[in-house]
Amino acid sequence: MNRIKQISLLLILYFISTNVQAQVEKAAVVSFYTNKVVGFSEISGPGTDVLLEKVLNLSEDPDFNLQPMLNKFHEQFFTKYAKDFQYDFLPEDEVTSNPEYINFVPTTLGVETQENDRLLSYGNYKAIYEGALGKANEEGMAKIFKDKAERTIYVSFSFEFVNSAIGIGSTGLLKIRATMRIAVYDKAGKKVFIIREGANSKQTVVKVKGIPIMDASKILPMCESALDELMKDMDKKLEKRILKELKNKK
């Protein structure tokens, strides 16, 4: 190959590379949190008031510490899962130190969302609700980052009690289910796609008269197990889910 052809080939490769880079969309993760209240909708019934009191007390128990799990999920998201998206992510500090982001007050149906100590955010992120009643939040975040990112992303996970196959009536065994939600919105605050996945813990806990033994030493390891199982599942199929969602949007 003569020198002219070599130069021409290099120029073609350069322009292809530049064009591909220019097409990669920027994304800003604007919320990253977990809920300290373990859900119980699947097992609710007679005695719901007692159950509610117990899960709220559990959320306030210092021994029920979800911070290590939140840290672990955050690290997994940004070191592995973020690579599965076809986006260039803004540095987290650039997002959370933005003055407009700092001053933003999330709302639900026009009502300001008060600080909630049952929602545990990672670092300086805000726990921002998105979904059926979150239009103002979705559009607000999109507006703040419209000049820097084509996508805003909300990441959260939660836990809930679910029935296992073993049990009779109000007595039996329960598992914990971890559920992750990744929601992606465009520059106008419109939903692009949402990925929701869940997995159950390997361990179980006894319920008596419909009420599980609500002890942090029993429930916390179940939450850890459920989150570990969830992350294993995501390692296998998240990339395919994302590619499928992106293909459906084309």
Give the arrangement of secondary structure elements.
Layout: H1 3-23, E1 25-35, H2 48-60, H3 67-84, E2 87-89, H4 92-96, H5 99-103, E3 107-108, E4 111-112, E5 119-121, H6 135-144, E6 151-168, E7 171-185, E8 191-200, E9 205-208, E10 211-212, H7 216-249
Parallel strand pairs: 1-2, 1-6
Antiparallel strand pairs: 1-5, 3-4, 6-7, 7-8, 7-9, 9-10
Helix pairs in contact: 3-7
What does it look like?
The protein contains seven helices and ten strands. With 250 residues, it is α+β, with helices and mostly antiparallel strands. Strands 1, 2, 5, 6, 7, 8, 9 and 10 form an eight-stranded mixed beta sheet that branches. Strand 3 and strand 4 form a beta hairpin. Helix 3 packs parallel to helix 7. 30% of the residues are buried.
Order of helices and strands: HEHHEHHEEEHEEEEEH
Computed CA radius of gyration, to the nearest angstrom: 22 Å
Question: SS-based structural class?
Answer: alpha+beta
First-residue to last-residue Cα separation:
40 Å
Percentage of residues in DSSP E strands: 25-35%
Shape: globular
Instruction: Name the average pLDDT.
Output: 87
Question: Key terms for this structure?
Answer:
alpha+beta, 8-stranded mixed beta sheet, 10 strands, 28% strand
Q: What's the gist of this structure?
A:
Helices cover 42% and strands 28% of the residues. Helix 3 packs parallel to helix 7. The protein is globular and about 75 Å long.
